[in-house]
Protein 1
Amino acid sequence: MLISNMEVVPGKRITQHLGMVQGSTVRAKHAGRDIMAGFKNIFGGELKGYTELLSESREEAIERLKQQAAALGANAVINVRFSTSSIAAGASEIFVYGTAVTVEDR
Amino acid sequence: MIELIVFLVLLALGYGFGRLSESRHYRSIFQREQALRSIAVVPIKIPPPEYLRHNSTLVSGSVVISVDYFKTVVASLRNIFGGRVGAYESLLDRARREAILRMQEEARELGAETIYNVKYETSRIGENAAKGLGSVEVLAYGTALIACPDSK
């Protein structure tokens, strides 16, 4: 499955548009990480735990996007966009959407 | 009295460690930016025709970075007088550059030449989101163009 955030795919021709596909996941951090983050708010610096958590959730969201696209019979998802929102204390939603298409070699 | 001491200790800790981690981070950013200069990052939607034969794939880099206590205090003072909040400017600058660097590192592992259509996404993280800037997440993503071995 080809994932791209461009509207065209270099070297390939888009033969069919299959509509929008999306994937999302809501994740919360466990309390230990929140306490560590509280300390980090005093000292400053990168919150490695959160960085990992968010990239894991993003991978999962992309995985769901791929599943949806595969169910439609697509072999590529183009024009992919990410969006993040913090919906409640300590939980954030990762949302990814794009256009499912079929492409073939030019 | 005890509250004042705690406040001053936190302020001093924030100032000391915050400064240290910021200068260390900037040093590593400068170093890695030099090393990764060969992978061009371009926010243009459609690549020029010379990349027509390349493979493409999504790459992304993200970082969550936290303010220190000193910066929080300085910024809240700044809120009274208005004006540039330098403390937060450098924080966001570091986060953006770090995100781009991580994206470039991913692209290099894939053997990519350039990254097109780069987009940024910034969000606030954690329960401090209501109060003020606790920590920010910056995500950078784009499409890496990888030369096909058979195209030459």
Protein 2
Amino acid sequence: MYFIAFGGESPNGFAFTDLLEAIPGEARFFVGAATTTLTPGNRGQGAKRDGMGSGRAADRIPGIRRLSMDEARRLPPEHTMALVIEPLWVSAFCGWRPKWLVMLVPRKAYETPVQQRWADLVTGMADAVLAESESLYLQLCFRRNGVIFWDPYRSWEERRQLAIQVIETLVERGDPERMAVDQRHSLLRDYEMLADREDVKETAYYLMALYRYLLADSRAQQDLLTAFERAVEAGRPNSLITHYRFLSAILAQCGRVEEAVQAYGITAVDERAKEEYDRLVRWFEEGQGQLVRARLFLLNDDIRSARVTLGRLDGEAARRLSMEADIRAGRLEEALCRLTPGDRKSRAARRAIAVQEGLLHWMRGDRAEAIHQFLRAAVEDPGVLGYVLEMGDAEEILERIGRRGGGYDAARAQSLGQSVDGHDAGAQ
Amino acid sequence: MRPVRKASGNRLTAMMQVRNEADRYLETVLRELSEFVDDIVVVDDASSDGTPDLCRRFKKVSNLVILSESLFGREWMLRSLLWKVAVSTDPDWLLAVDADEVYEDRAKERLRGLIDQDRYDWVGFRMFDFWGGMTHYREDEHWNLHRRHMVTLVRFLPGYHYFFPKMDLHVPRIPLSYRVLPGYRSELRIKHFGWVGSPEQLRRKYERYVALDPEGRFGNADQYRSILDPNPRLVEWKEDGP
């Protein structure tokens, strides 16, 4: 089996070093730069063995072999796991699909919009997601299953064990959700121990509410209200939206739909939210309680629960919500499969659909068709040409990363191709 | 499903906590309130002067709860109880009134307009502390409540999370949770007669506050002392004033 890390730097600049170290040396490959460019963002990345996060020497991953993208594509996909930290490499897969795809979400933000767009798309399609920042981790837990917190404050050995467990779980069971649930229980216990500390009480209770919600534990309601009280006392005027609105998701999860609608209504203080509330009331009075739940999940960014709920529903409103949920989850293919001819009636709708189709073709590596779709949409809205420019940006970023490697060494590639599991990888 | 916010047809319920108010301003306050609210809810904090009997004389007092033991030293419990009794009547809006507060005449005319809307959930008014009589209010460093807005009128939002700070004294009359809801600051005025008493009555009030809060933990010790100021700065009240 092969493991290829797709990074924006050299292996030494790779944020998830411990993950690479957990992989058998003979099976690990790297697509990215050969030399690290030190920036404030990556300086000292990686983690010391004491788990406190400062960088180690440049040779910290001995023996990892660098590949070009062409070489990577020659590896047998059915025996390959891609570990992606630079999502734009996936735009260069061009139809090559490794059997397992793991998205590694670094703590630092992506520098360009095109990287962020691809990060969202790859996060949607990956078999598992590892996130270095807890806030990003939580956001992703609300988006999909199989998200693991790559806690930078855990010891090197703990992270190594976690890495081995993720890989084994993916290979053996294909779905790391059980493992993700166990981790949420563990994180909840950590915050329960902090709950009595006055200085962190609001944050601890808020996070306890989030974790309990993710674990479908109805005590999330009381924890949230405790956090809300603290936020109000601290004079945070936006806590009606940042804290209280989440009660509508908790109540919807518990099946208390009418109360959930009213909780949302209390927070509906701007025109857009008032329109949403009116629609929720109308659906509820029409007896469409499950549709109301799904909408409330979406309004609380719980795309994962919305997709599960909508998966059991029929009807036009459910179909439309499903499309929205799929797009927000990065599942373009599923969203576009739900299209009906009626969706293309207005110019704005045709433009939006063409953009999504263009992105899907880009993801599949069909560059020509992607450009064709973007140009079609640009007839209605010249702003869409930005997507074509993004395609150029993506290529330029990848080229720049590649150039830091000092060019392509054909002789080395030949030798590498022959060394991969004893036969010519180029023949794959 | 009852909408969270109604723009018309709202009922207004006044809520009061009272204690030994029979010989002061309670009758005036109940008479004035009866002119513009739909119901009045009262919690009597163990009065011994016939205050409950006075309340019963007003038809709009729809709910009167009489405590046999005073909660005066545990004010947050008293406020919470009053709130609980008031919301049990399923109101649309609540007006929190003390037994020595009277709304100016033009406020009474405009209150309906303030509650029959769906844009804000609380209304703040300016409160003037009348001093030494019914013609002047006090204005100085410690007595300037009228320059700010005090929230006394709130929309009742069923299901919302209401809570009071657990303080023994000077507990806000409205749950803290209203702080994060949208509100409106009205220029309308409330006349507060709580400090209209004789120097001897003021001294007794001062002594009561100092006994309950000697270090000024719930209030302001300097303000307590200023109650005894023999020459406070007074300003004449004008009915058609700003």
